TrEMBL record:
Region annotation Disordered: where it falls in the sequence: 1-21
CDD domains on file: cupin_DUF861
Protein name: Cupin domain-containing protein
Gene3D superfamilies: Jelly Rolls
Basic and acidic residues composition bias: residue spans: 7-21
Sequence ranges assigned to domain Cupin type-2 in this UniProt record: 63-110
SUPFAM superfamilies found in the cross-reference section: RmlC-like cupins
Lineage summary: Bacteria, Bacillati, Actinomycetota, Actinomycetes, Mycobacteriales
A Pfam family of this chain: Cupin_2
Amino acid sequence: MSGLVRKSFDSPEETRPFEDGKGKIDLVDLAGGAVGRGVFEPGWKWSDHVKPIAKTDSCQAAHVGYCVSGRMVVVMDDGEQQEFGPGDVMIAPPGHDAWVVGDEACVLVDWQGFADYAKR
């Protein structure tokens, strides 16, 4: 039997919308865990659009992801800050806020942090 698996974000197993329609997470399930594609619309900010869902002071998910398009700033609770854009690979430990920069949606693919992200 083949070990090939094919999934598509065009038909995810689950979609989780953010507050105020500012984006969503699409999840596909793999044997090693969920992989997510986040679409973060212009004006999206974690502390405004996910914090009410997560009910934590900052994002407590650890992210390992790839930025497909758009730009996002991530600022850690200790003040360390980085901006990510197309082609960037991101590692963001728990304890951060984030927001979209500019007028283009930021699309991120995340292999670690979206399994419980924005889960109601």
